[in-house]
Design brief:
Cytochrome Bc1 Complex, Chain A, domain 1, alpha+beta, about 575 residues, single chain, 12 strands
Amino acid sequence: MDNFRSRLRRSLGVDLAKIERIVDEELKKLIANGPSVIEMNKARTQSVVGFVRSLEAIGGFSGKTNLLAESETFLGEPDAWKVAWNRYRNATPADLQGAAKRWLSDGDYILHMVPYGKLSASSEGADRSKMPEPGAAVPAVFPSLERAELANGLKLVVARRPGVPVVNMSMLVNTGIAADWASETAGGGAFSAGLMDEGTKTRTGEQLSDQLGALGASVSSGGGGENSVVSLSAVKPTLREALDIYADVVLNPAYRAADVERSKANALAGLEASKQDGAKAAARLSPTLLYGANSPYGRLTGERDIAALDPAKLAAFHARWFKPNNATLVVSGDTSLAEVRPLVEAAFGKWLRGNVPERIVPVTANAAKTVVYLIDKPGAPQSVITASVTAPRRVEGDNAARGVFVSAIGGSFTSRINMKLREEKGWAYGASAGVSGGRGSRLYTASASVQADKTSESMTEIGALLRGATSDRKLTAKELADAQGNLSLGLSSSWSKSAGIANAVIDQISYDLPEDYYAKYPQAIAGVTLDAANAAGAELLSGKALTWIVAGDLSKIEAGIRALNLGEVRVIDADANLLR
């Protein structure tokens, strides 16, 4: 059974019959022989660690309240989970083999889950006769941060979150936008960062998975844009051993040819799929249409770029940016600076500092005139609509007021855009608007997937909402209060997990925000005035021409869109090439 996962990985893209044979063979082995002691211990460790991690959350789809409620509901006592848990912890390989013989040997039911299966609505409803009574809100408190710097320049930030023996580490590397960005192959940074957890020079991907799994730990990596992050999640009893493997991933990625080729094949398949999906096609093209192809933010990664990538290019990206004096290790969880620093010194103290490329922060002016880009999706029953402007850079002190405005217009279920298109008109399942991007110019985008016969009408409504928000329909006092609640009431849940704390610290560092930014964030949200929120909205939208992207069946929607006379209409393909 140890090679079950690797056999399935090698079967990606093959027919379902082959996958069925592999699953059937491994299942028969389990019934005949049972799991090995090693497999049993690994599964037990992973399950124990998964349970421990779930206890970080207060509630939601997991967490303390769910565990207590399920125990009371199904077992009669809120602490009855201990009985079932101990039964699981004490299980033996023979127990599992017996269960497999008893429950898995009386025939098979095979279900193929394929895209776009036939779906139907449930006829069952919910009892909404009584409104739940909420309790008083508990103010969110961000933990204090401890900071240090190693001799080689690696910065260390520790956010202590005691209670659950879990420690998360995130190596944040400022991979920036290099001044010579045009000389690099598009997409190379994302591939380089994403493949770091696929194996090191001394460990294959399967060995990494096995060794980390035995420790109840996991490692992930990604980025390649202005930031790259390699993360470790571990439990305290095995932290030292897990940290040694984590350091190997950070310092010595292998970029084996087979892993690179597999990743490229997956990327090409994903790229093709995104071109067929209206929402993904619009999201992919928005940066290049608003920033322009001559901006690093507007660069489009295509098939040729992916094909041109090789292990040497990916290794070169890592060697260029991954330097201790260009990185910050964010540690969150049940530890302290005094406790974790010696471990970090041992793992990363010999990492050599070095020079990194000159970095730039791209800034792009908004489009001078409105342009409507159309992408043909014949037969599509819905149209995907986006309306965008370039947004100002995120700088210290201005994000709270802008966040309130963004939440009120399109950042929550009760926002103006969603209430208009979903609740009032019934043309869309959901509609939203928000800000995205990096350290330079960003994008503010309103988006919705609407029924095809209401495409032009939906565009009229979106345009009116965005214009009115800075003119005759500015935010009201109620909208201000609702938006402040939306932004602040969820912080306690977000910050209940060490991973949530780490994400906030990474955000704080990435944008050079003050060290106490999130400690004061709830107060900053509460202190936003109506005038400040509306002023932030005016800076974001007032007087700016919209850039529209609409993906849908042009035989049904193009005439209506042209009749709106919003501006120049251009029909493009999924790579932004002008067709007419």
